Amino acid sequence: MAKKPRKIKTAKGLRLKIVNPDSAGIDIADGEMQVCVPEDRDGDNNRRFGSFTEDLIEICEWLRVCRINTVAMEATGVYWIPLYLKLKDYGFDVILANPTQVKNFTQDKTDAADAESLMLQHSYGLIKPSFQPENITRQIRNLARHRMTIVDKSGQETQRMQKAMEMMNIKLSTVISDVLGKSGQAIIRAILDGNHDPKSLAELADPKCKASKETIAKSLEGTWDADKLFMLKQSVDCYDFYQKQLAECDKMIESLLAEYTAEIDIKSNKFVRTRKRTSQKNAVAFDMELYAHAVFGVNIMAMPGMSSNSMLQLVAELGHDFTDKFETCAKFCKWANTAPSNKISGGKLLSSHMKKRKNPVGQVLRICANAVRNEKSEMGAYFRRMKSKSGHNQAVVATAHKMARILYAMVKYNREYNPAKVGCTEKELLIKKRDRAQKALQKLEQKLKEAS
Predict the structure, then answer these.
(1) Where is pLDDT greater, at 252 or 447?
(2) CA dist 255 → 133, 136, 157, 319, 425 (Å)
(3) Which H or E run contains 166?
(4) What is the pLDDT of residue 64?
(5) Cα dihedral 98, 99, 104, 109 sign
């Protein structure tokens, strides 16, 4: 746990107090690691190591000999991850520093100077730690992000299917909303099997399709070029491959979630399924609502706009103990980049623009906020009120901020979602406006009577 800087009063005035005496600093690079410890721990206190696994073990052993308890390192690409995990396995308290916050503290830009600067700043408690989940949560996070990449790749292959058909003047995507649905897939695979008769292909469409069979048949009158059909076949094969990869990834994530929920011990409320209707396209292939409840202790699926994919991202990015790592809800919202970044000088608010940085949790909450824009709920009414005041983009951020505060409070205090605390529905707002208007009319009538 990172310690905060402290001041002590001396004969020469206030000075910073050393709060982490047993600290070390590590400058990370691709091929080498520069490690610095206090001078009283070793004669050669600023050493250079390699980046192979045996070098990482040597670093951990040397730090243990030097009686080091906590280590600060700078986040450099992905090169810091192996050493970070190795130090965690050895029991060190590792602080991951944001490069923008620790740079420009040294005059000479060298690896040795950077490592010494990190050690010095960390000893005084001046380094703000970056949020990092536990090792098993990190594995789930890696697979969840990998799953998003697979879904994106599947979407790209879908676009290539549509492009190949458009180049043959096959307007299937115009008359059918989803070419990956039951009707679209049946027609595309029949085309690849050699059936190029528009009327025969139109009969494969589901009777529930809004477009008539005649319209679908007209959209399937194309040129049937050999090169375009080959491109279509390659895209379909790639799509099928990514769907297979997605199913395998879901199985691996579920096994890690089962292991994770078996290890943690948290206070949980009684699980009550929400029965919320969710989209089946690219949805996780397991009961994410049950696993999320086991991790957080409450059913966050009850929040408007929340989906199984969103819950997977939140579990993977936050872990079960994120409320212990953020002291207040305001700090959590600021980290998630859902709260305004206020700049105040001379008692005046200079700016409150959002910082231009991507936070995965903030992005998930924004997606959930955008999903409630048409819902007839308290959260939907709040979104539309914010939209009427500031516009759509600002309403998304404001609703995401409210969702972040609700999520923090639910997990922190082990409380289920309560829509009454979100705000009023539009019907309740209209009733309040009507009551205020009636009271205003009554006061006006009273004044007229008194005047007459």
Answers:
(1) 252
(2) 18, 11, 28, 16, 41
(3) helix 135-167
(4) 94
(5) positive
Residues 6+ apart with CB under 8 A from 409: 329, 415
Q: What's the chain's length in residues?
A: 452
What is residue 26's DSSP assignment? E
The DSSP bridge partners found for residue 140 are none
pLDDT at 5: 61
pLDDT over threshold 80, residue 104: no
Characterize 284-318 residue by residue with b for buried, 16 or more Cβ atoms within 10 angstroms of its Cβ, and e for exposed: bebebbebbbbbbbbbbbbbbbbbbbbbbbbbbbb
Distance CA 297, CA 225 (A): 57
Other Cβ atoms within 10 Å of 170 Cβ, number? 25
Position 248 scores a pLDDT of: 96
- Expressed in percent and rounded to 5, the helix, strand and coil fractions of the chain are 55, 10, 35
User: Tell me, what's the pLDDT at 240?
Assistant: 95
Q: What is the pLDDT of residues 280-295, one digit of tens each?
A: 778 898 999 999 999 9
Alpha carbon distance 82, 75 (integer Å) = 12
Residues 394 and 386: beta-carbon distance below 8 Å:
yes
- Cβ-in-10-Å burial (0-12, 13-18, 19+) of 370 comes to middle
Give Dmax over CA atoms of the chain in angstroms.
99
Within a 10 A sphere around the Cβ of 58, how many other Cβ atoms?
A: 16
**What gap in Å lies between CA 129 and CA 97, rounded to an integer?**
6
| Phi, psi angles (nearest 5°) of residue 351 | -160, 150
Residue of 256, 362, 255 whose CA lies nearest to 318: 362
Question: The whole model's pTM is what?
Answer: 0.83
Q: Which of 109-118, 168-177, 269-278, 341-350 has the lowest mean pLDDT?
A: 341-350
- Sort strands 70-74 and 348-351 into parallel, antiparallel or unpaired: unpaired
**Does the pLDDT at position 215 exceed 70?**
yes
Which residues does 83 contact at the CB level (< 8 Å), separation at least 6? 26, 28, 33, 56, 59, 73
Fill in the amino acid letter for 130. Answer: S
pLDDT of residue 50: 93
